[in-house]
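Dataset card, provenance and construction

Sequences and ligand SMILES were collected as paired inputs. For each pair, a complete structure of the chain with the small molecule in place was predicted and serialized as structure tokens. The example below shows a pair involving 3-(4-hydroxy-phenyl)pyruvic acid. Curators did not alter the output after generation; any descriptive sentences attached to a record were derived from the structure itself.
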Amino acid sequence: MSVPREAGRGLGPVLVVGTGLIGTSLGLALRAEGVTVTLSDPSPTACALARDLGAGALETADDPEPAVVVVAAPPDVVGAVVAARLAAHPHAVVTDVASVKSAVLGDLLAAGVDVTRYVGSHPMAGRERSGAIAGRADLFQGRPWVVVPHEHSDPAAVEAVTVLATAAGGAPVRMPAHEHDEAVAAVSHVPQVAASLVAARLRDLSTDAVGLAGQGVRDVTRIAASDPALWTQILVGNAAAVSTVLGELHTAIGEVLDALDGLREDADAEAPGARATLAAMLADGNAGHARIPGKHGSSPTMYTTVTVLIPDEPGMLARLFADVGDEGVNIEDIRMEHAVGRLVGVVDLLVRPDAADPLCAGLLARGWNLTE
Ligand SMILES: NC(=O)C1=CN([C@@H]2O[C@H](COP(=O)(O)OP(=O)(O)OC[C@H]3O[C@@H](n4cnc5c(N)ncnc54)[C@H](O)[C@@H]3O)[C@@H](O)[C@H]2O)C=CC1
Ligand SMILES: O=C(O)C(=O)Cc1ccc(O)cc1
């Protein structure tokens, strides 16, 4: 099967079906590469908004046939939408970006659909906000984009989806559906459940207690702000794999609980073995955390944090970044929070370890206030 090609890294016209966060971000990324993008969404407002934001043109009956159709709809309708688009565009490759993969393929096979031109995919990039307005052209930049071949898929279709992922800025990774679903259960779906469960414990705290929140709880609960409707569908769609990983977490929590209960109940807090259980849990966490790849999929890197107190005034952050640039240092990541009751912001600059000392000296010389 030949895939029509034009500008934008050899990619022909792309039709994006579902113009929320992911569909709009994809349209923006592809448009920046010169790819022709058309947009479709059952919500006329969502579609027109994506168009207004620059993600592509509204789909019309006169459009040239798309080379690739990307279904970026909620997971529970993806199978039906893919089937409809395979029928409507008999020469196009059809992919989807749903966060679960076996369920979509299973739905298509159960419906007797010819899946030769269907190859699922999943960009491992997103935000805790939904809708076109949250779309960003650089969302997929350097992030893994899983391409999911299956036993019936045409190799040319697999290649077309790989080209699409690359054109959007992603780093394509090929993986069968079941392997993908097991992996994302551990790296995405259970973390979402854990973040939501931890954040739920804050709901009824007093204002004074929640006011003590620091960066740790913010880091652990960031994705608890995600869309409940979308995530219910994701968890339903990957129930088996999520249940396996969550079961392991449940067992580990049980062991920690037993250790803590032992310490609480033992009048002398002797509780033999309890301390070893807690230390092992924390050390295992260190080991797991160290396995997370660095920015853009590079090997894990431990950055050094340089913490700067900045006056809460317009332009201060821009001045700080400019000064760091003038010191010749690349900022690998940043974190920010406002100091409670003070008109300053606390900015953590994460830099390569060898750059930290010269940067501290340079910033101090430029009058910045550093803190531990
Ligand atoms: N939100 C995230 O961080 C990520 C989401 N995904 C996947 O991307 C897909 C879209 O998610 P978001 O963009 O976050 O959701 P969203 O809620 O921002 O957008 C979904 C869009 O799909 C449209 N839609 C609803 N029913 C439809 C149908 N039958 N046909 C076509 N469009 C329909 C909605 O009107 C809406 O504009 C989901 O399958 C999700 O699993 C993948 C990676 C990350
Ligand atoms: O916000 C984050 O850190 C994410 O990892 C977002 C995300 C959400 C859903 C996906 O299917 C993939 C990525």
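Derived descriptions for this record:
Confidence is low (pLDDT under 50) at residues 1-7.
The chain has three domains: 7-175, 183-295, 304-371.
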